[in-house]
Amino acid sequence: MKKPGTDRARLADKMADARELCMSRIRMVPREKREAVADAILALADPEWWELRHKGTEVFLLILELRKDVVLRILRDAGA
Fold first, then answer.
1. Contact 18/39 with Cβ under 8 angstroms?
2. Residue 55: helix, strand or coil by DSSP?
3. d(C-alpha 29, C-alpha 23), whole Å
4. How far is CA 66 from the centre of its chain?
5. Could you give the 3-state DSSP secondary structure of residue 2?
6. Cα–Cα distances in angstroms (integers) from residue 70 to residues 2, 10, 44, 67, in the given order
7. CA of 29: how far to CAs of 10, 17, 46, in Å?
8. CB contact at 8 A, 52 and 4
9. What DSSP letter does each residue of 28-50 carry, written as one string?
10. In angstroms, rounded to a whole number, what is the distance separating the alpha carbons of residues 67 and 22?
11. Which pLDDT does position 4 carry in this prediction?
């Protein structure tokens, strides 16, 4: 039986990994807007993606693949 805290810790680790990858990929966005842009991009993920994928980086890549138009619009609106 799994501990509930372990699942939350694993989810937090996945989100941190995805955020780190996202932040490294959006260098064209002005520095003061990067965190908000990363949060907006990661918010596009379906909640079940976090549960089904083994790594946060997989979730980030899935967002880019399936929500490409929205991601591009977020980047464009941020001044990238």
1. no
2. coil
3. 9
4. 13
5. coil
6. 36, 27, 8, 6
7. 29, 19, 24
8. no
9. TS-GGGHHHHHHHHHTTS-HHHH
10. 14
11. 59
